Structures are given as structure tokens and as C-alpha cells.
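[agent] plan:
  1. take the single chain provided in the ticket
  2. run structure prediction with default settings
  3. attach C-alpha cells to the ticket
  4. add a short note for the reviewer (M.T.)
[agent] executing step 1
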Amino acid sequence: MSIAPGDLGKHGRQLGKGGQATVIELPGLELPDVTGELVYKKYHQPHSEFGSLRRVVATRNDLDLPARRRLDAVTVWPVRVVEESGHALGVVMPKIPDAYFDRVTLLGTGGTKLVLREVQNLFIPPDRAAGLGRPTPDGEQRLRICRDFAGVLAFLHDTLGVVFGDINAMNEVFRLDDTPMVMFLDCDGVRPKGVKATVTQLDAPDWVSPDGGLLSRASDLYKLGLFILRCLTPGPLASVRTNPDAIGGALDSQGVAMLRRALGAVPERRPLAAEWEVYLRRALGEPIAPPKVGAVAVDRPIVLKGQPVVVDWEAFEATEVRISAGPGCVEVVKANGAHDRGSTSIAPRETAVIEVSAVNALGVDHRSAGPVDVVEPPVHHPLPVPMPELPPLLVDVPAPQGLDLVSMPVLGIPPPRADLVPSADRKAFEWPSLPGVGAARFPIDFGGFFADVPTYEFDEESGR
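[agent] step 2 finished; step 3 output follows
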């Protein structure tokens, strides 16, 4: 937790100087628990009571790895106390990343200079900011900056149990190209709960809470309200604005009500930083927790190949829902944040268990439905059927004019009805003479014409 001045290595450039300390590069110093470059914040006046500084450093050391990484991403947190002869000479901290600097053009010389992108640049009129070489975030980007500002403060209050205290226009910097978008500086001045800070905590002009007395969590929450108001309403006099009614349409009715409570005179009614973070995430359509899949069901357990099933699903905190019915068979639908339900059709290519996944930036959750059996549709195959050979149809016919006619094959032709056909309509059809064929003929109707069909004589001797 402590380091001697002689162990800092060779000092590099002076990066900045303020009322209480000077910041100097430490190009030769490396620490096993810190990634990246380090700097030395050297106090103008050494501190003899440095117990709280050690506790600030210990707060980081006591965190698990994910929490420590988050702390390093959103703050310039002290990682060692520089001590000598019972005095704290300063602290070692990570160097502020380049993403929080602007390269601005100097008036007169035309040269350029890297300058910290402090949050005070969010309050000035956008056209003036552009003229100074500063970024001009749009309304959504400003909401995201407020979201991360509230998120850092919630992390300090709820996870670390500290009061930041000196929230002002210069103690926080912002970026637009990544998340998190806000970083808090001067964290050696934080006050662990119930402990007096070694480094004096101050109220900057125009950032004074109405509570008076020691800076507290309640005063942090008041200043959070000031930041949200001023960030979302840039323009003339925005940096001194305190009236919540000036927010206009930048927040909905819920947000306006929260802002009035935040800037009110009753500390207990001020929204917590975590409440602001949840509200701002909702306003941006973002999740506030890892996603979760609720109830899922399919409308049928078996389906013909190529035909769809309908999957009913429920998801919480999801930005999208993925329905999978085996390799290469996935449907993706957008989800609406806090709680959403839907029905999605999907055509499995083979028998499969349906997997429903809820997804957001914080994780993935899965649940199964089914299985669904996929069967091939029936196929019609014609079968060749041989036609049976039928015997000739024998029809008894009266013997004409004394001829002994027993029967005749007519191949399914009905018996003649000579009595129904007028003699004038009958047409003779001459058949060739065959052995055993008599001369007597009678007409048969063949669908529009008449023919005389020969008859067979019966020979008693031969039996034919």
C-alpha cells in the first residue's frame, strides 16, 4: 500500500499543477497489480495524518478482480501512498488515458496542445465548443454520459461505500468513442464512510449543496442532479443552472420528477445514483441486468419437413431473442428491454430441441423447448395392376324365323331389342360369310347407326 520516494524511479514530464498538488510522469515505474502507465501526484504540503489515504488504497486491494477492473476503468484511483519519515508526500495513480484529451488549436500561434476534456465543456453552447476544438455530443450521447456519471457514483456509494465529495466541472472527464464514457479524478480525496478524509474535500463554486456541513452522500446526489441538468441543457449560463424546470423536454415526466427531488432541500428524498442509472438506461432502451428467458413453448411436437412450428417465448432485460432449431436454423428478433413476449415461426430441418436465448450486453440466458420431431411427408408411388382377362359374355337371343340360335358372343353388347327400333331406321351392315353362319340378320344399335349382326346355327350332329 505504500512506496518510498526513491522507489518511484526517474521522474518524467510534469503533466499538470493544481492548488494542492503537481502531477508528474513515472516512465520507469511498473506495479504488478496495475496495467498501464503511472503518475505521481505530489502534494505541495505533506500530510502527517495519512490513515485515510492508506484506507483508500486498501479499498481497491480488497476488491475482486472484476470490481477492481471496473474501478480502474472509471476512476483515477490511488494505488500506492508515497511515504517518507512518517509523512504522506503524495500518491501513485494510473495515468489518464489519451481518449479523455482533446488536441486543440492555440489562438495566435496556431500550434496544438493536448487538453483534458473536462465535463465543463458539456455546458457551453455547442457552437462555441466546436469553435474551441471540443466535441459537440448530441442528445443521446448526453444521456449516455449522464448514465455513466450516475453509474460511477453508484459504484462508489454502493460497492465501495465512499463519498466522493468534490464533484465539480473539472473533477470528471468524458469521452464519446467507448464505454464507460466518464472518468472521475482526484479520488485521493474520497471519504470512506465514517472516516475523515486526509485530503480536504471542497465545494467548488456553483456546486454547493443546500445542506451545509460535511460533504456526504446526500450532497453527492444533489451535485449529480446539477450535472444532469447542466449536461442536458447546454447554452448560456448552463454552468450555474439550478432550477429543474429548465430541463424542458430533455427528460420525460418521470425524469423531471426525479430531478426536482434531486435538487430539492430534503436530502432524504433525493434519488440514489443507482436509481438515476436505471432510469437513464431505460430512457436509452438499454438493459439494467443480465437477460433472462421466461416461459417458452412450441405449438406442436411433430411437424412435416419444411413446415414451421410456432415458438412462444418470454424474455426479461433482453435486447434480442434468438430461436434455434439445430445447426444453421436460427431466427433472431429484437426485444424491448425490461419485459417482452412474442411468437416466432421456425422450420426445423431435422428433429431438434428448440433453444431460446435472451441476449444483451451483459450476458446470455438459455432455455429449451420441445423436442420437435420432423418427419418426411408421404410420397405417392403408382403400382402397375394387370387387367384380368374376362370370358366372353353369352347372351340368349331368340332364333329368327325358325333358325335354332342358342347363343352369341357380343362382347358386352346388350341383347337386341328389335321391337324398340322402327324398321325404317334400321340400316343393314353386310358381314363377310363365315362357315356355319346363317343368312338371318337382326339390327343392333351401335350409338347412332344400326348393323345386322350374323347369327350362329346349331348343328345337332356335331353339337356346335
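[agent] step 4 note for reviewer: Residues 315 and 453 are 88 Å apart (CA to CA).
[agent] ticket updated
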